[in-house]
Write a structure and sequence with these properties.
The protein folds into two domains: 5-117 and 298-328, Quinone Oxidoreductase, Chain A, domain 1 (Alpha-Beta Complex); 131-270, NAD(P)-binding Rossmann-like Domain (Rossmann fold, 3-Layer(aba) Sandwich), CATH 3.40.50. Helices cover 30% and strands 26% of the residues. It is built from ten helices and 15 strands.
């Protein structure tokens, strides 16, 4: 039996011009690791879109298979932690950045990067959540750890129609929050309300230069945008509130002031999903399996095949995708 499998490969020439191709790889092309996984499903994240389009330096070694998430079945293992037949999930750990990622038939990775697929979830279910949804859960967990509760006031979600935002709305509304959804796509208002948003505001309300302090509008938030949007969100956060920052779709800068922090006691909580400790990952996936509404999860996602990955990656960067995209391999 051939060990060859289809893969997407990003390369760069001597002039640092990037190219993307569909090719075949074999097990001889694997990178360092002790567990081989047959990939059953993956997904398209904003970071994957940046990697494939080259619009940000996500890929840091070449050639490389992109894709930061996968779910699948262990087919070979050199560690006692995993055995053939185990169902697993991988999020982050540098896959799709410095280590061959998910847009291939198989991947060899370190066993410590894997977590078990929760009982009752399929590989497709897990990738309908993906790093975006897992990041949204980490954000909610951070707000809770900080002592934020629904009775303190509304929660703002920026980039609401995107992967992180859509899952964050579902999670926060399920916990009892009045969710304010900020989006640049007002045509998605009905979709956002179906997910649990109580109020929709236009992205323009938050995209201009921020005042040091503005009218208090919410006690909590999940921000996947950064830049002026996050600065405005902070300026409108009520006394003692907190915002979880987990993305940079609007930019890496933060043109804010210290006013929200020293005059209102507002906290900015940084969320890193790539290198999050295993215990935190296990808790996040346990809660995703039990707390995320699976009917909403279905509404959040659509399914494509391997051959549609490159086009969808370009679409996500252009803001043409709502919710989650699952790739069935």
């Amino acid at each position: 039996m051939s060990d060859r499998f289809k893969a997407i490969l990003i390369s760069r020439d001597a002039e640092k011009k990037q190219s993307v191709e569909v090719t075949e790889l074999g097990e001889a092309d694997f990178m360092e690791g002790d567990v081989t996984v047959a990939i059953e499903a993956t997904t398209i994240n904003y970071k994957d879109g940046l990697a494939i389009t080259g619009k940000a330096p996500v890929v840091r070694r070449f050639p490389l298979v992109p894709g930061i998430d996968f779910a699948g079945t262990v087919v070979a293992s050199d560690t006692a932690d995993w055995k053939p037949g185990d169902k697993v999930i991988l999020n982050g750990w540098g896959t799709g950045e410095t280590h061959h990622g998910a847009f291939a038939g198989k991947s060899r990775v370190k066993g410590e990067w894997l977590v078990p697929l929760p009982a009752g979830m399929s590989a497709r279910d897990a990738m309908a959540v993906g790093t975006a949804g897992y990041t949204a859960m980490l954000s909610v967990m951070a707000l809770e750890k900080h002592g934020i509760t629904p009775d303190m006031g509304p929660a703002i979600v920026t980039g609401a129609a995107g992967g992180v935002g859509s899952v964050a709305i579902s999670l926060l509304s399920g916990l009892g929050y009045h969710v304010v959804a900020s989006t640049g796509r007002p045509e998605e208002s009905d979709f956002l309300k179906q997910l649990g948003a109580s109020e929709i505001i236009k992205r323009d309300e938050l995209s201009g230069p921020a005042k040091p302090l503005n009218r208090e509008r919410w006690a909590a938030g999940v921000d996947a945008v950064g830049s002026h949007t996050l600065a405005n969100v902070l300026s409108m956060t009520s006394y003692g509130g907190a915002i979880a920052a987990c993305g940079l779709a609007g930019g890496m800068d933060l043109p804010s002031s210290v006013a929200p922090f020293i005059l209102r006691g507002v906290s900015l909580l940084g969320i890193d999903s790539v290198m999050a400790p295993r215990a935190m990952r296990l808790e996040a996936w346990r809660r995703i399996a039990t707390e995320l509404d699976h009917a909403k999860l279905s509404a959040l996602s659509r399914t494509i095949g391997f051959d549609d990955i490159i086009a969808s990656a370009r679409d996500i960067v252009d803001g043409k995708i709502r919710g989650r995209v699952v790739v069935e391999m």
